[in-house]
Amino acid sequence: MISNLIKRKIFTLLKVQYSNMLEYRVEIALWAISGIIPFFMLNIWTNNNLNESINISDALLSRYFLCAFFVRQFSVVWVVFSFEEDSLMGKVSPYLIQPLNPFFRYFAQHLAEQITRFPFALIIAFFFFIFNPESIWIPNLVILLLSIVSTFLSFLIQFLIQSIVACLCFWTEKASSIERLLFIPTLFLSGLLAPVVSFPAYVKSWIYLTPFPYLIDFPANLLSGNETNISGGLSMQILWIFLLFPLFKKIWSEGTKKYTAMGS
Amino acid sequence: MVQNIIDVRNLSKSFDISSKEPGLKGTIKHFFRRQTKSLKVIKDISFEIKEGEIVGFLGANGAGKTTILKMLCGLIYPSEGSILVSGYLPFRRKENFLKNITLIMGQKQQLIWDLPPIESFYLNASIYDLDKFEAKKRIKKLSEMLEIDRELFIPVRKLSLGQRMKSELLAALIHEPNILFLDEPTLGLDINAQRNLRKFLQRYNKETNATICLTSHYMKDITSLCKRVICVHEGAISYDGKLDLLLKKLSPVKEILIVCRSEEDAIKLKNFGFTVKNKIKNEITIKIENNSITSSLKTILNNFDIEDLFINEPPIDEVIGKVLIKKNYDI
Predict the structure, then answer these.
(1) pTM
(2) Do B75 and A259 touch (CB under 8 A)?
(3) ipTM higher than 0.85?
């Protein structure tokens, strides 16, 4: 049953959403460019020699921020905004009475967008290496595969967190405001602005109990070849998915009872 | 015996509505102390619908027609009472139930705006577990019935409203549901597109014996498709029965315009004992009760020299308009 779901429904959804995303290729290129915040952070770190305080070489730090850029490119999620709009405008109504949870549509939309984004991200990486030739490296195949898995798990965690917040639309109508609250810890604790290793020890011990460092810091460290606990990181990612998924299912089932099909 | 496919018992639905006074004072008050009240929009209604029936839901704006349809298809959760559709509790949205129904809302669309409709059709086909061959067959059949076979490959955004609505219908019917919930399906369409859509629905009902629940503000949709209507007034059912019975009840008399050969005949006819509405020269308009039309016409034709004769049905919109503002109709 699950294989049928993945083979037929998700694959078709992905194909259709990819065709749809290709209609927006210019926008996607701009979104890819807009994700260069890790490069700004790299500039701040290297210009102020901050890497010395955490014993990371310039090359490793460059790789870390490049990998953070890549991980961010393939794990960025906006489902809360799409669902909120669709829910308030009543667009979600036809999907609710189809034998497929509407979140699969958003899921496929995100995956299709990532596939479309891929070549643009490669071009940006190419230019990054031109300006930072010392950071060029070739990760081994196992590490590369594990990093892809880890990035996908990071995407799943973020997708689940945002889907849970999106379901709050059934109660609050403006669930995206709650997402704004989550944006701050995501920004600071995920490793987008600074590697988590740079935080004081007692702060780090708390951060590692939250899902945030597994969103960017862990996959970026893994891909860039920095020292990291691979099995521990992957286990924590899977644990968070197992914790968030039933929560999403519960909140979805309670929320749909509250749905008023506004705007339709 | 034809089975009930929809069974509704003592159904009610309430919504929490917040109200706000106008102006800055009202806004500040609303910010600190939001006042919400529970509004009962559907009040204890019961009805059954048989398999293959086409039932029209009539009512003024805000009467509760769409809310009833939304509860029947499982989109919203009822506050009280029970609904059984095809043996299922709709709000549980079981896969087999969802594969049996469809909801079409005239003002909402499910087609992907930037892609040709064929992409959305194949997507829906996979959602409803149809294989590619079967999907192709159904798309061909339905697109021929709806006369949109040439529009399948044009992006939705480039289609006219009528073509888009037909495409919506195809997308919603690809899984061949046997219960159709249609909420103002002809909204915004021109007269020809409306007529074609009605013809299609009649044909679909005839060929598949599908049950159709329909709301529309266009009376032509109701009169040409529905033998039975359910009138909804402020969330309660004010009439549930045959449309022609309702029309007879609401307009028990017909107006007949008679053109006499001479004005003398018109004067004689005026004094014959019929209820006269008006008389202009040799033309006279009389009112005759529906049950005595044949005998009255026979008398007129036998006793007067008649040049021409017209039977005027009262405008259906006017008749139905009476239903929308009245609480109860006992027939």
Answers:
(1) 0.83
(2) yes
(3) no
